[in-house]
Amino acid sequence: MSNKPSIPFSEPPYLAGLPSPYYSSSHLQWQKACRAFIDDNLNQHALDWEREEKVPPEIFQKFAAANMLIPTLPAPLPVEWLKRLGVHDILGAVTVEDWDYLHTAIYTDEMSRSGLSGPAASLTTGMSYGVPPIIKFGSRDLQEHFLPELLLGKKRICIAITEPDAGSDVANIQTTAVKTDDGKHYIVNGAKKWITNGIWSAYATMAVRTSGPGPAGLSLLIVPLLDYPGVAMRPLKCSGQASGGTTYIELDDVRVPVSNLIGQEGMGMKYIMTNFNHERLIIAIGVTRGARVALAAAFEYCLKREAFGLTLMDQPVVRHRLAKCGAMLESQWAWIEQFVYQMTKLSKAEADVELGGLTALAKAQAGIVLDECARCAVLLFGGNGYTRTGQGEIVERIYRDVPGARIPGGSEDVLLDLSIRQLVKNYKNKTKLLERPRGSSKL
Helix (H, G, I), strand (E, B), or coil: what is residue 405? Predict the structure, then answer.
């Protein structure tokens, strides 16, 4: 932590000189090492790469060589696999055994410190969301075949769930995987859309339909992509996240070995929903940092910009705008810290039940907070915030990233509804446990 005063709202309170009950010396040591590496190798160039719409491939290789893609995996890390591959610590700051979700949150926050979602997503999305199902549900043979190259960053993978006609409605996925007569291959046909990192990926952890309609017909399959027969990929231009490698994938009679099945046929929906919890939490952390960058930029600008003979900060209406967004931002961050701390104290099974609905709510609320903070920043920057170059460029770009926070990982309205349905389900299940069985004694 620097002795130099921070621009208000520019840093989480624990980095702005305020005490926190959550962070140990291990977390603080990791934050310093993490920031130094990420600033040197990503954040100082992030805006240039977002303009160019591509992060240079050697940056992925540099992160992989330093084992700095591994921190985006769910905690606890796959210690057995990592040690077998010679990975015993991350940047010499924290051992893989001591890693917890607070370390993950620090990494995610630091990766998002440029305020832009594209550069970080270009590096981490595949590892963060495509690899965990293999670790959690894949057979030993499947893991032996794929994990060594994926964990060390020698090959890239993406997560491919969304389709042109099935986004948040995962159960409606239409891409099919039909077994050949000899039972040795699946023939995959369909299309996937808005797939981050797809254009560079050797493989996709892909949701496919292996049997009838609905969620029970879904499975997860590792599908080869790059230069593979029957696979065609093209980049998609989106309003934000220009460097993230968003991709449209077409699959025409793609032959995939049945050994590439993750877990069991028909269990895909369960695997996907479990995977979503980590994805939504990571999005919430990164998006909240994006909101922080936008609001802090606006705060700093208002201290120096003059209008009507006063700085903007001297105008009560401006302070009012900043105050409302600041309250939303810091409330959201406090919730995330509490949330992540709870993850360090609950087992994966407990967290999936107790926090699954709240994870959806936290991700949805993060998008709402980003929308408010980014819109406030653009308005306070005025014409500069509406311009793609110059001193307002960063807030203009963050504002374009807002839909990319509110739609992927489950669109906002779907997640708000899901959160309440999950809380109601948990409440009813717990209430049933208190009910007296029929015919039992009334004593």
Answer: helix
Q: What is the mean pLDDT of residues 352-357?
A: 92
pLDDT tens digits, one per residue of 79-128: 999 999 999 999 999 999 999 999 999 999 999 999 999 999 999 999 99
What is the rounded CA–CA span in Å between residue 14 and residue 61?
31
> What SS3 class is residue 1?
coil
Quote the Cα angle for 25-338-169, to 5°: 125
φ/ψ of 139, rounded to 5, equals -70, 165
Tell me the C-alpha to C-alpha distance, in Å, between residue 103 and each of 109, 135, 232, 264.
10, 20, 38, 32
Rounded Cα distance between 190 and 209, Å, is 10
Which residues are bridge partners to 163 per DSSP?
166
The pair of structure tokens assigned to 49 is: 């790469």
d(CA 416, CA 402): 17
The answer to whether residues 157 and 64 touch, using CB atoms and an 8 Å cutoff, is: no
- Asked if 70 and 107 count as a contact pair (C-beta separation under 8 A), the reply is no
In whole angstroms, give the CA distance from residue 130 to residue 132: 6
**CA dihedral (273, 279, 283, 285) positive or negative:** positive
pLDDT digits (tens, 9 = 90+) for 300-323: 999 999 999 999 999 999 999 999
Q: 47-71 in b/e burial notation, b at 16+ Cβ within 10 A? A: bebbeeebbeeebbebbbeebbbbb
- Written as six digits, the tokens of 203 are 């493989």
